[in-house]
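Section 5.1 Outputs to date
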Amino acid sequence: MIEYKQLVLDKNEITNLYNSVGWSAYLKDNETLFEGIKNSLFSYAAYQNDKLIGLIRVVGDGKTIVYIQDILIDPSFQNNKIGSNLLSYILHKFKDVRQILLTTDKNVKTMNFYKNNGFVNYEDINLVGYMKKKGE
């Protein structure tokens, strides 16, 4: 049975989850990742038998803007609605927020996931996004 609750900040569990999805760039500086998660507006997680199998975290002011920073599911648990359940919880929790944004990889599976959950591509609503990466 999968249990959903606020994320418990367990460094080993978090490291294992990020490794499982291949997000190694985050793990180049674990302490920065853990501080980022700790300083997030809200983090919510899925557990099976007390093992972290998925998480979603958001940053923002919680009133006018929320940015979904991370959503990741252990690959062995993907396609079981865990990501949709985590996302649905966040969308409900922040339902009165004017803008809920995210940035994701440009691949069909990921883009379809967000479209199926009510998100639109910036281009579809005549917007554009920009990003400045560290060191560039």
